[in-house]
Structure formats: structure tokens, C-alpha cells
Structures
1.
Amino acid sequence: MIVCICHRVSDRDIARAAHNGCASFDDLQFELSVATSCGKCHDCAHETFHRHAAQQPTACAQPWPGNGAAMSGKVIQIAIQHLHDTGASRPA
């Protein structure tokens, strides 16, 4: 079922994001743009996300090599993708 008509986001898309480690509804909005235009789908999207997120085990933070700071796997993926997209070299 389509939840967000503005961005063509389905309940399956939301479930997949929750299953893949999307940690919060804010993260879901950033990732899928759900409930960021007209707002009519906000309640349904929020409920759908939390229903699926509650079924997922909590992800542990992964340490970033080199500085020992704890960062989630998603943040690391975004950082690596950014480095790849910009052609920058990976930090030592």
C-alpha cells in the first residue's frame, strides 16, 4: 500500500528501511522523504515505521577505525559513499 503519495513510499519501503537499521522516524524522513511534503501521511508513516522498528533488534554502534568514536553503521556507509562520490581519499 502506498503511504506517501507525494514521494511514492509504500509500507514495504518503510518496513525495509526499518529492517535495514533505520534508527528513527527522523532518519526515515531523511532517507525516504516520507511525510516531508504535504504531511497527510505523517501519522500512517509514523505508525508503520514504529510497528516495524519494534520488531527489529537494536543495532550496536560500530567503532570508526582510527579515532575510537562510536558511530552507527549507517553513518559510516554515508561517509564512505560521500568520499566515493567526491573522489576524496579515505582518512588514515
2.
Amino acid sequence: MTRIHGGRIFEASAKLNRGWFNIIDFSANINPFGQPARLKDVLFEAYDLTLHYPEERAQSFISGLSRYFDLEESYFLPGPGSTIHIYLLARLLGQGSNVIIGPAFSEYEAAIKAAGGQFVYVNAGPDNLFAVTMAMVETVFSHNPTAIFLANPANPTGRLIPEPVLEALLAESQAKKIPLIVDEAFLDFTTAETLLHKVKTHPNLVVLRSLTKIMAVPGLRLAYLVAAPDLVSRLWDHLGPWPLSALAIQAGNFFVDIQYGSSFDLRKKLDPLESALYPVLNQIGHPYPTQANFALLHMVPQHTDEAIDFFFQKGLLVRDCRDFNGLGLGWLRFAIRPKKEIEILDQLIKELCARAT
């Protein structure tokens, strides 16, 4: 199946012949409160750095992460988004028989296929509100995997893995020396703690962290991986020099200063927007509980294509989830967006429902 991604705003702009700034994007799970206020100034001040090659290994960014997390620099690997890390990990660790805990981001499967590996999904389902359970942990290890891929919170369900289940995965993978790759791309939108500090005691653990979602800069491509130094060293050999542009490095340094030094509770700011979004979505289907910054909706399958196209023609993008293993036609994902955009979505859904009567 052809992989689908959210955030294709420039493609939509060309097809609709309208400016990208006039398109509302519910398909990409980006911080609805936007970028930090001083980011434009930081990038403008750093512009002349583009006259030269950037730091070969994004050293200043890695040093900042090391200081904040109190973890040696050798545990960190920068990257232009986490997707490249997923492909590198699949190349080094995923050539055997892998388990993907799903529903999950399609690039895990694609990366494993590209590396020549095999895979099987162990999926959470709607009957259990997409919760990952202890029974699923048993199933995961019954497949004798050579590596395990998962996201916390899961994409597209928005569900956090319960702490006892996560501890069981960590303990069993450690005991059996199986790489456990945990994608935390959306963790900053939840109340959960990162696992990155556990890499010292769990050398088979790999944690993927993204700054593009929380700081609303997907166009900058900025992420980092945390793993045992020997694996990081091997990954460097495949990643090569200059993983980040000069502007991305400066943005990363700025983000470390303002995000990780901040005490604001983003989840409390998101809750009112989530409360506004769910009644709107209820008009066309059943939205499932989320702990992240997006909601998974199930609607009547035969009406799905009509709804997606209707929104698209109106300049509003949603994420079609039919390419997620374990879902299919009838499943849509909506990012939690600002109140004004939710109001526009509400108007369009009312118009869509009126057309159907």
C-alpha cells in the first residue's frame, strides 16, 4: 500500500491553486500554540552562518542536550527528523525478525523492508480503546523478535503505554538483549516522563526524540536519538557528517534553552482545545480517547472518501489512516488545533452533514 503522510500543505496549495497560508492543516500533529516568540529573531541573527558549513557533528546542540539531561554526549545522535534514525536503526538492527507494536507510523515497516528484514504487527484494538496491554507484551516476545519498534504515545491513537506495561517491555528486552526502539515524537504533549535516562541501565533501549512537533518547526527537520554509546558510534558511521544545517543547530540550541528550562504545563493548555474538538468530531463519527495532541476518529467507511475530499476542496486537510496496519478505511486522525480552526472545522462538518440529508 502507498504510504500516506500528513502535512502535505504545499501539494494541497498547488492542487487547489491557493496560498498555503490559506489552508488549514488538521493532518499534521504540530503544537497548536505555534513557534516560540523569539525564534524568527534567532534564525535571522544566525542567517550569516549559512555562508559556511555547519558544525560537522552539531556539537553545540549535543553539548546543550548533554548538560540539560546530565548524560554524556556520547549517548546522543542528532538528525534531520527522526525518520532518518528509524531507517538507520532498521539497517543496523532490523534485518532479522522484528515486531512493530501498532497501529504505528508506516515508516517503521518501510524502513525494515528497505533493510531486508521481516516484521509482524502486534496491534492494540478499538475494543480496548487501543490500550497496549500485558497480554500484548507476551505476544510480542512469543515472536522471538530481533528488535521491537513502538511509539509512546502511539501514533495515530494518541494512547500512552501504561507504565507497568512499559516496564515489562523494558525488563524483558533487557533480559533477552533485544533492541527496544521507543519513538517519543509526541511525548512532550503528554504528562509522561521520557525514558532517555534509562539508556544507562538498559543498553538495549533506543529513544527517539523530536523537536519539530513541540516547537512547531517541521520544516527545520530537527531531532535526536539517545542510545548506548557503542550503538551511537555505529550510527554515526552511517549518518555521516553535517546531519543538521547551521540554522537547525541554532534553533536546537535555542529550543534546549527555552523548552527544557520551562515549567509551563502544555497539557493544561491543550485540554480546553481537546474538549472543544471532540463534540465537533462526534457529529460525523466516534473519536477515541487521546493523551496526545491528536484524536483518532472512526466514521462510516463508505462516507470516508467523500468527507476527505469535501474538506480538501474547502482547504482543510485531515489525515487518512487507511495505511495504518490494523485500521483501514473509515479511520481519520485530527490534530488538536487552535480554537478558531476548530470552529471552522465545525462549520464544515455541519455543511457536510446537511449535504447528506
